[in-house]
């Protein structure tokens, strides 16, 4: 059996294990909508810690963190991970616990139910439904695209007679690897199966299991790669010699920037060949490598707004409501920053090492100089460094870990989309007493299949800048954070203020997204800041000004949501 | 104590902007760049401060609401 075939069997075994877990948890399913969507509000602290962490960590946790560090250096930890450690826990503590208590008291299942009630407005739900679902779809895309790409990359060469490969550029399917369409489609089906079998309880158990898997396998990968590079000290020494800018947040004039210099030479040669080729045989214009430029203070600071998105993720809202008690949140609030650190620090180091890694005794870099797709870096490091000795076991295990991170977010998103549709559209308009629990669950499942199918079709277009799209999606959710925060803490927030907040978010988000050429400008900053800073400022301002200009909510509503 | 904990959290947010290590490539244990090690420390500090927030800033109204929910559940004969 070839190493690539070993990887395929490990991945298939892991997926089978998940389906098995779904079957086990389905035995605990009580058949009610409350049990399917909220696990009868009975999830204890351990499952809550794991499901909240697993849900917030996407493919970005392993693949993206390594890739971003490879591209921009160690500063990405401060921007993406340590900010998240502070802000996510703040959201759990200040928003999650409050929403849990209000949800348990008033029987909410979805965010929209809460907002409709709090702002005495049925139509607010009509406005929020497309906004929330529309923002979740790019989030789903991250997982589906990353899953298909990772599986294809790791299984390359496994079945050359079956899969011929094809396509052009970084999105090309590798010969013999499980094709992208099959890998991403297969992952969607596995997640749908275990979610349908066990509902949110199944997702929570799968999340806990998968979170442990990706933490453990991430650490194993780190140790093995460090060893193959001649030890951690040697790996870091190579960085300081060739690409020291990756070990800080600045680029100095005398930096060797070996990776960029070599990539630029390759690009210049390719460009000459491209110009010489007949026009009808040229293909796409070669892309120039990005010159390292460091991270500015303002860019670094304004990244803090991105993790506010956690306060408005509909799938996290649903997880919050599954908690058995408010106390169940305590370990999640404390452990979340530590779990982020355990996953991200090794990945950021791996990404930094990848800029300069050369296997001891050899001359070629582990990641070829012209490599332009940072998201392939982790897979390539593993594949290149475990060619001997590992026989496909480590790549297979790492892929299982990456898929675990991906699926532990996809499952919750699938469930929450179904829940929103079943509760906020079907049951809300037909009448909760007219729709049985079974029908609600069925409607939820049908809508999820529809959304997953749409996402899958979009994913087949191989959107290259999927992580950029993710940042835009998070920016939209973060722009709605003032709404949830004010709904809980500011009595004076009014219905009109809530509408103004959502519309201001949507307006500024769309305008800034268009300025970024609809995501094509990957490093787009507005006034030197992350666009999310402007979006949050605009939505906050709109909410405050319009709320102060319009009549306060009724006494009955205030009594329902605030203690005197 | 409550105010002190929140003040320390704000201080952590300020300390997050570590301009003093921006251009440093000093290594910790000859392996980890100081800019990364410092932010790993920020993550540990965040965990400690949120533990303090849970101890000293736990919202009273949530406790009351939880009791209320439990009472309602007893009356209705169901769980929360």
Summarize, please.
The complex is a heterodimer of chains A (564) and B (80). Chain A has 564 residues and is mainly α. Chain A is built from 21 helices and no strands.
Radius of gyration of chain B (CA) equals 21 Å
Helix content of chain A: 55-70%
List SSEs of chain B in N-to-C order: HEEHH
Strand content of chain B: 5-15%
Number of helices of chain B: 3
Name the largest protein-protein interface in this structure: A-B, 51 and 42 residues
The average pLDDT value of chain B, as a whole number, equals: 89
Structural account:
The complex is a heterodimer of chains A (564) and B (80). Chain A is mainly α and 564 residues long. Chain A has 21 helices and no strands. The longest helix of chain A has 49 residues. The model of chain A has no long low-confidence stretch (mean pLDDT 89). By secondary structure, chain B is mainly alpha-helical. Helices cover 68% and strands 5% of the residues of chain B. Chain B has three helices and two strands. In chain B, strand 1 and strand 2 form a beta hairpin. The longest helix of chain B has 23 residues. Classes of the chains: A mainly alpha (564), B mainly alpha (80).
Secondary structure layout plus pairing:
The complex is a heterodimer of chains A (564) and B (80).
Chain A: H1 3-26, H2 33-38, H3 45-56, H4 63-72, H5 75-106, H6 111-118, H7 123-154, H8 180-228, H9 232-242, H10 258-276, H11 297-302, H12 314-321, H13 329-354, H14 377-385, H15 393-430, H16 437-459, H17 466-479, H18 481-489, H19 495-515, H20 531-549, H21 555-561
Chain B: H1 2-15, E1 27-28, E2 32-33, H2 34-56, H3 60-76
Helix pairs in contact in B: 1-2
Task: Output the keywords.
heterodimer; A: 564 residues; mainly alpha; 21 helices; 68% helix; globular; B: 80 residues; two-stranded antiparallel ribbon; 5% strand
